[in-house]
Amino acid sequence: MSPLPPLPLQPELKEKVWGGSALFALLGLPPTAQPIGEAWLIFENLLVIDGPWAGCTLAALTESHPEAMLGAALARSQHRGAPRFPLLAKLIEAREWLSVQVHPDDAYAREHEGEPYGKAEAWYILRAEPGAQIIHGVREPIARESLITLAQSGALHEKLAAVSVHAGDVILNLPGTIHALGPGIVLYEIQQSSDLTYRLYDWGRPASTGRALHLRQSADVSVLEPLTTHILRPIPLAQGENEGEQLVHTPYFTTERWVLRHTQVRDTQQRSPHLLTALRGAGRVVNEHGEALLTTQASVVVPAAPQRYTIEPSEAPLEVLVSYC
Q1: How far is CA 112 from the centre of its chain?
Q2: Is 108 within a domain?
Q3: Is residue 91 domain-resident?
Q4: Which ranges of 156-309 does DSSP label H, i.e. alpha helix?
Q5: Angle at alpha carbon of residue 289, lines to 246 and 193, rounded to 5°
């Protein structure tokens, strides 16, 4: 396998009608006049910005070095065609309600959209204004044949579960979960590498905005029974004097949050790439083939091979999110 060092990536900002300006400060970037709703931190089409692979996309490196990037088992498990980088990490700011939406699972995505992945996602709330809410599932059972009628009449949101959220909360949106992000929230999202989104309701925004509804697909994939859990309980972690917590663990991805005051030694076990995002502080990520700076301006992908690497704080404490399959 060709040597792959840690790979730094520059975020790509996405203008959204419901966005704001908070992500500029969080990322240490100069603001613009446009409302920015998302910063895509790690995604297969982003370019490596430093080191011997600068100018290459994650997609190209995954195709040319599938086992080194993904690990042998994950590379072999890809459904069809060229191997795909499996995860997408982003920051989101909502100043208005996002659409009420739902995502398909892998099987539906393959059969109906020709895509290898559906979309499971998890939210880690970084900031929440007083009274901030999300929609997470339905409040009461809904008959599948009634879902489209409710959406068309504008009465759907009355049947949905509104959940208050606070900084530090973790929410899991499995495929089929009807959900929406409310105003006054900034969060980190880890998800499968898919942008398949079916909108059920868009709060009266005009169709001229180009934000189409997808009622038939939504009716096909939605879970229409109330959820038993809305907010996940993180599991404490420790490594020497470094403290952390496992925010979420699913068959699709796992995310940990660490506050590092000393070097942390980690191991991919050659099972998955690791996605590193700094929330504060700075450091460097080192494996036997090289190193990359980890800052709020640049997230880092650590290839699955070689499996051992270190995260070394240069501005302690370094608060870092680590996600992997």
Answers
A1: 23
A2: yes
A3: yes
A4: 215-221
A5: 45
Task: Give the mean pLDDT of 190-210.
Answer: 84
pTM over 0.85: yes
Alpha carbon distance 245, 15 (integer Å): 32
Q: Which of 95, 199, 266, 284 is catalytic?
A: 199
Asked if residue 124 is part of any domain, the answer here is yes
Q: What angle do CA 216, 181, 148 make, to 5 degrees?
A: 20
- Best CA proximity match to 145, nearest among 227, 197, 220, 226: 220
DSSP 98: P
Strand, coil or helix: what is 66? helix
The yes-or-no answer on residue 199 being catalytic is yes
Same-domain check for residues 174 and 294: no
Beta pairing partners, 199? 101
Number of structural domains in the chain: 2
> Of 180, 185, 181, which is closest to residue 218 (Cα–Cα)?
180
Question: Is there a single domain that holds both residue 193 and residue 249?
Answer: no
Q: Kindly list the strands in the beta sheet with 198-201, ordered across the sheet, starting from the edge strand earlier in the chain.
A: 160-164, 133-138, 179-181, 100-102, 198-201
Residue 105: other Cβ atoms inside 10 A: 18
Structure-derived torsion over alpha carbons of residues 162, 167, 172, 173, reported in degrees to the nearest 10: 50
Q: What is the mean pLDDT of residues 153-161?
A: 92
* Average pLDDT for 117-143: 97
- Nearest Cα residue to 5 out of 47, 45, 51: 51
Domain interval for residue 265: 235-324
**pLDDT value at position 303?**
98
> Are residues 196 and 78 part of one domain?
yes
Verify that 192 and 315 share a domain, yes or no. no
pLDDT at site 306: 93
Helix (H, G, I), strand (E, B) or coil at 25: helix
Cβ 69 vs Cβ 50: under 8 Å = no
Which two tokens mark 279?
A: 């929330």
Q: Which residues contact 206 (CB under 8 A, 6 or more apart)?
A: none
Give the pLDDT confidence of 47-74 residue by residue, as tens digits.
999 999 999 999 999 999 999 999 998 8
Per residue in 234-262, pLDDT (tens digit) is 999 999 989 999 999 999 999 999 999 99
